[in-house]
Amino acid sequence: MSWSDALTILAGFVGGLLSGALGIGGGQAFIPMMTIGFRFPQSLAQGTSLAAIVPTALAGGLTHLGEGNVVIRAALWMGGGGVVGAVLGALLAVEIPGSILSRLFGAFLIFNAWRLFTAARKPAAGIPKGA
User: Which one-letter DSSP state was computed for residue 70?
Assistant: First the structure.
């Protein structure tokens, strides 16, 4: 096993850990690791991430299912729509130049970071302020 293989396994572990713990889907971790850390082109990183997400999402989803943290009907509807959207999105992504695709993904990450930041600053329902 080479150092590159070991780093790839470590990146997969970190992405899987974040995916399972935070529900981010893994791509928000995998794609930046591949484009910045491994210097993959954006479209190659996205395709590789999608392929790697299947076992990661399955493992995390089954764990949450076992813990009773899944609304099955919603998951089935979202999964079905997600399959159709993933095919259409992948077909679209291969037509978009890499520089534009990278900027779109960066904007997506910034938007998600902003949403998470603002949501985290709001007091949780049912918890007294300052507790």
Answer: -
